[in-house]
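Weekly structure sync, notes
Attendees: PL, DS, HV (note-taker this week)

Item 1: ATP-binding protein
DS walked through the input record. Source organism listed as Streptomyces chilikensis. Sequence as pasted into the shared doc:
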Amino acid sequence: MSRGPGSLAERLRWARERAFVGRREQLALFREALSGAPDAPAVLYVHGPGGVGKSTLLRRFADEGRDAGRPVVEVNGRLIDPSPAGFRAEAEAVGAAPDTVLLVDAFEHCQGLEDWLRDHFLPELPGRTLVVLAGREPPGSAWRSDLAWSEALAVVPLADLAPADADRLLELRDVAPVVRDRVLAFAGGHPLALSLAAGVAARGGGSGWEPTPDVLTALLSRMVGEVPSPEHRLALEVAAHAMTTTEGLLRAVLGPERGAELFTWLRRLPVADWGRQGVYLHDLVSEAVDADLRWRDPQGYEEMHRRVGHHLLEQARTASPAEAMVAIREISHLKRYGPMGEYFRMSREGDYHEDVLRPGDHDAVRRLITEAEGPESAAVVDFWLERRPEAFWMYRASATGEPVAFMTWLRLSEPRADELAADPVLAQAWEHTLRAGPLRPGEHLMLARFLVHPSAYYDISPVLHLMQLRICADYIRSTALAWSFIISPFPRRWEALMEHLGHERATALPWPNGHTYTLFACDWRITPLSIWFDRTQPGALTEAPARPAADAPAAPLARAAFDTAVRDALRDWHRPDVLAAGALRTTRMVTGQPGYAPEHAGEMLRELLSDAVDALRADPRDAKLHRVLATTFFHRVPSHMVAAERLSLPYSTFRRHLQRGCERVCDILWQRETAGLPIPSAHV
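Item 1 (cont.): predicted structure, written out as tokens:
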């Protein structure tokens, strides 16, 4: 291949090769695998921390593969739909030639696909296919425990550059010899840190260049301050905030005149890379730039967030279904910071994927609902499986394809007598609709009736995140949507997010399994999409969390409200933050304790609840109630059905003991609340 002047591809290849340093052992191993020798590995698994040079190494592998005459397919894990179907769609060209080289970068973003790749996708590939997976995490133990894979797999840990290679990198970046020692002492052999330091030192460090304690924050501040114009600075900040950046996004944020110019500038940054969906910055760089803007200019940050979000909303509304889901994921990515961040940050994706309901799934759905909610809910699910099977979305383990969760997402345009009779929750949704704002001709409502994942029942999880994405997609793409309803047995846990998304408490319905299901409702006729998105502002980086209302005086709870609050608190026992915001926070039994302080209310309530449950052991007649309560609320079982099985009790007996146990705990705590008496000790 010519390395002189020629095509742009040739010039870029020449520049990459000239700038590449070190990694001799990794290159030798790749060349051996590329040769197709009988004992050469078929899969290379490269792993190392962020910024250590995995992407640079894969680009070199791609060049070497093409030089050898092999077709090269490149997949970026951060940009794909993290599901088997999404991965196959990106890698579909692999099967076209038997000697393809498949390079998968940023594998940590779809790490959950690891078992599926190992057991299903990779064994299906033609014999001479060479695969390189590169991510931050090392391979799971299942690779090594399988004798066949132990022979076909080469694990390639990637560490910092050797001192000589690090010095050579600085030389290639035109860092003067007089400052190289200082830069090396500062950045070590970390390639990204070296590149950032070199970018500053080469532009005017001179012999007086001094390192600061934090390479990523200090050097990025210098780099952001040296961009050519405020528009370039804003383009960098957009790229840091968004999952990917396109010319269209830059035009939407900065105006139509300079989108192409700024996009080209972003692509040339040493901390940027690109794929089919657009340009993206290295994760560590994105975090530093985004945090800097949010701290430095909160108002500017909010305006940038709003413009980026409105552009993505329009994409989600008008694109094809598959492309719309990409836009929905990118909208969710924008919400990873701020008070709602915990609901949107997923540290790992790919273990599960969304699918339609298939003919063989009905038994699995019945098993999941019975385990999670009991036979009464199972009867309702049976009705909807028969009446509206298209309303079911399945969530499968990517490694096996087995169903682990499902959602029933109903779209209804009129109340029907048999549906109202079969599903009391639906009846309440229609009652609220008719009372608060009846449907007009052509309108419909949507009800998230079941969001069932027994092992993480209504907890923040990757599966519930996938359900959220599906729900938000229909919010955005549905025409004539009047009302939407979301159900939760743990309203305090989800109320902040529901309010954030424009949903308010509408109704509550006690259920035979011991839960009270709350419906959150939103009238979309008074909630335009633009206003709905604008509620998602992350807020200032330094904003302090609002003090709980516990500090304000509150009227004493009546007995019925007190008992309801105790039952809610038992269910939230593992979450002191939720307890600290609950109705019991202002009761005498909490505020009257020695050493009371509002910030300790959650822990004080945990102790009060634990003592009340333990007090049941003092009476042999209540010992069985203690076992049921402790197992159900303190041992993190996913559902009442599982708790009953663990206790070897019939479900009906379990429910009876649970009801009686809750009543006894309410009695004990009410006595403490009204008389100021200590809780009887089980250890006396």
